[in-house]
Design a protein that fits this description.
mainly beta; six-stranded mixed beta sheet; four-stranded antiparallel beta sheet; about 0% helix
């Protein structure tokens, strides 16, 4: 059974940074493409960034240049470094493996002064 545990969210001022982590289990992590999604209040869940098993990355236009997705296969963990945060980045952030339907509990990111 695939399990995903996100952490690292919190309250940050505009312009600040956060690093999210997602620990995965129940799958062969190194073979799976991973992604971060987010869902803001009243909005649909959206894809933020993805990373393939070979380390190729893709980003939503709204975060390109500010966010960086990375992975550590030895730790079975995917990260999302978020810089230059603005209030529009406020959301619950989730990680997911593309090949599985499982979602973690998410981690809340709030950008506010």
């Amino acid at each position: 059974q695939v399990q995903l545990v996100e952490s690292g969210g919190g309250l940050v001022q505009p312009g600040g940074s956060l690093r999210l982590s997602c620990a995965a289990s129940g799958m062969i992590f190194r073979l799976n493409s991973m992604a971060w999604y987010r869902q803001a209040p009243g909005k649909q869940r959206e894809l933020v960034a993805s990373i393939s098993s070979l380390g190729m990355t893709n980003y939503a236009e709204s975060v390109r240049g500010r966010f960086t997705i990375s992975r550590d296969n030895a730790k079975k963990t995917v990260y999302l470094q978020m810089n230059s945060l603005n209030p529009e980045d406020t959301a619950v952030y989730y990680c997911k493996a593309f090949s599985y339907d499982s979602w973690g509990q998410g981690t809340q990111v709030t950008v506010s002064s």
